[in-house]
Amino acid sequence: MSGENGHLKTHFDEPSLDYSVTETSIGEDTINELRQIAARYPQARSALLPMLHLVQSVEGRVTPAGIEICADLLGLTAADVSGVATFYTMYKRKPVGDYHVGVCTTALCAIMGGDEVLSRLQDHLEVGNDETTEDGKITLEHIECNAACDFAPVMMVNWEFMDNQTPESAVEVVDKLRAGAEVQSTRGARICTWKQAERVLAGFPDGRADEGPAAGPESVLGLEIARRNGWKAPEPGAVPEASAESEEGKA
User: Fold this and answer.
1) How does pLDDT run across 81-99, given as a tens digit for each residue?
2) CATH architecture of the region 11-85
3) Host H or E run for residue 160
């Protein structure tokens, strides 16, 4: 979509953090969990990324209060934390709906129909890129490659895969989510809410990690071909003998 000045809207067109938000839902329990995260790392500042995910699991986005609390716990400045929070696109500056729906529009997914999937969802949900439906259920965003090209076009819901999508199947998924129906990802767990997923990203497992297959047939096809043909990788340290052709080339 185009920005107000007619240029392509990018992540850098997004507003900065909303410093008019002064209230916070972060209580002592969350602060203790933030301390737990920091204690996992030899250098506490390395905990900032999961800590920001925990902030989002409570606040629904990164807030000024969340930034200040993380900064205090890690001995950083608010500017340090804000710089990280506004650099990575997974940290949101405005409230996210119950379900974050991301449609890959990078080359292969686009060629295989990702652009049509995104366009249909925008029309169906009546939102633009990185916007949330009026009922607060769905935030829609076009996203870059999710390393699932063998299942293109790919859509993700709270970072769980929905493979081989069509405009019709994508609409069916979001309608089920808005209706409160259970949705199972194609290669992963049952879909939880965005805040619940953020808590998992912060390092607090929800027990769903082993739900569903981790890889589909397309991803392991090369491995199966190698097994059928008896192909194996060289042993570590083994140096294959030079072929006659390569020796001739050196001469």
Assistant:
1) 999 999 998 999 899 999 9
2) Orthogonal Bundle (1.10)
3) strand 160-162
